[in-house]
Amino acid sequence: MSTSAQIGVTGLAVMGSNLARNFARNGYTVAVHNRTAAKTRALVEEFGKEGDFVAAESAKEFVAALERPRRLVIMVKAGEPTDAVIREFAPLLEPGDMIIDGGNAHFADTRRREKELREQGLHFVGTGISGGEEGALNGPSIMPGGSAESYATLGPMLEKISAKAADGAPCVTHVGPDGAGHFVKMVHNGIEYADMQLIGEAYHLLRSVAGYEPARIAEIFRTWNTGRLDSYLIEITAEVLSHVDAATGRPFVDVVLDQAEQKGTGRWTVQIALDLGVPVSGIAEAVFARSLSGHTALREASQGLAGPRPTPLPASEAAAFADRVEQALYASKVVSYTQGFHEIAAGSEEYGWTIDLGSVSSIWRGGCIIRAAFLDRIRAAYDVRPDLPSLLSDETFAREIAEAQDDWREVLIAATRQGVPAPGFSAALAYYDALRAERLPAALTQGQRDYFGAHTYRRTDREGSFHTLWGGDRSEVSA
Hints:
The protein is an alpha/beta fold.
């Protein structure tokens, strides 16, 4: 087989097939390969008119079809399947070639793989890809890690196939070394979990407290999508809420079982945040909300517990309440992004990645699931202050939250009185209040720790660590 393809894709499920088609549509000759050769042939037969494909039935044929430096994209399940593909192809490659993992890999696995392959003279590029099946075909947001050398030859290709923001900028950047790309994709998904949970809570409040039906709520979301909440998730929420089930004639949302599943990236975001000591309470509540929804027996056993049942507001008050929900949703959304960017910054420092947060916000403006109009403003905030400690420290965002906070609090008061769970809204407000508090009860916590475990404490009036001898005269000693 002649060497003719600029890039190759192995793993031709929907995401892999669409990514290969995207490369071909953009003028690249693409080698395609799948463990099942019939799937390779089917792709070329069905979509061969979209561009130039080279079908390879064996690993050796696939590698032989790639021009050097070889660029080999893996689109298989994360974990052992990815390792198996690497073990199959790495011995066939030469120094300077690269393997690009476009799956949802754990960043720690990516760091390990990058180190192992680097020792063999190969580049390993852990690449987060967001946008789902449609994005893979028409332009995703792409978050590649790996070496600067690999990005020099791979980057222009990724830029060509990526989504483009409203200003025409490609939604891809070299995030950083080894696992940086997959780390940022992980946090992206954690923010996505939080965003979806907050939208769900807004819907629940509009339905249970304002008394609106799904079709009316869909119109409210469409209106919100013309303002500062303009985003892909708000857009599709309106579509889902307006959909009517053909079989029953009922609102679609009423015939879907209320058990939300998850693939694990949101859970990883929370686990790694705990390791880094970064509070991502809004993202954590979103993960736990999905978990709780699936505990059917527990929920059924608890439905008789005491508490208020929602009583819809009079029509004259419902519209004003909906406006307050918009304020609460926006403020909570800002907090979710604040927590996500804090985790990225902490990961960047921990692993020596030097991630540019402004660039991250820029590539999330198009293609990805959390694409939203206000990411332009996040990018602008980091452009002005690359060392911005928090989005809440930005003057514009701080002013908006100040304007929203009274309504935010009123919404949570209404939710509590009506017995409507709003863990995302509540966690976001608690985080905001904790940040702005002059003193936190952590002083008492540290005193308790010193009492039962001699863990010591620091004082506000002098330097050093101290321990109180809690028995007897309770004297204080330097630790």
